[in-house]
Amino acid sequence: MEDLVQYMRAHADSEEKRAMEQYMRNQFAFLGLRSPVRRVLYREFVAEHGKPLDSVATARELYAQTEREFCYLAIDMLTKDVKKQSADVIDFYEQLVVTEPWWDTVDLLASTLVGGHFRLYPELISEYNAKWIDGDNIWLARTAILFQLKYKEATDFNLLFANCEKWLDSDEFFIQKAIGWALRQYAKFEPEVVREFVESHALSPLSRREALKHL
């Protein structure tokens, strides 16, 4: 793993680094490797050194690095192996959600890793959804609201609406945005159901605007 870290750092771009750090409000350090570049570099590394054998162990080490691109790289690796993981990996995903959380990592974790994992192990949904939506961590609550983002017609709309209702009074921007986003996504498949929910609930202006954006 250390070879991978050094390989990425050797290709740092100082100009892109400044731009990326400013975009993220200078909350995180960056190497300056945008997604297309980062993915090409990783493919080059794998071609020469081989793919890491344990994506979870490697992701844990990558998340411990300073620069933000290593979090993205960890999520990329885990995404490729999402269908290979055992049920208990959900606890690791939960840990990643609350590690240096911001929308850039949490949204990928929620919609791709957690969402994909719950498709494989739907028996986990009740326990973890309840823990996250009833807790006080906004990023876990956002994960609960967003994990069905790619479920399309298979969305459990009762669960989605119940999750939204739990946090309707929140003044957190990232929660209001998540509610609107999740409803907007489901509205692509059940527009009238979403419209009825929006009209019958006191959503924040942001959530309402996002939910009805394409209706």
Automatic annotation (TrEMBL):
Q: Which InterPro entries match?
A: ARM-type_fold, DNA_alkylation
Q: Where is the signal peptide?
A: none
Write one Pfam family the protein is assigned to.
Answer: DNA_alkylation
Highest taxon in the source lineage: Bacteria
What name does UniProt use for this protein?
A: DNA alkylation repair protein
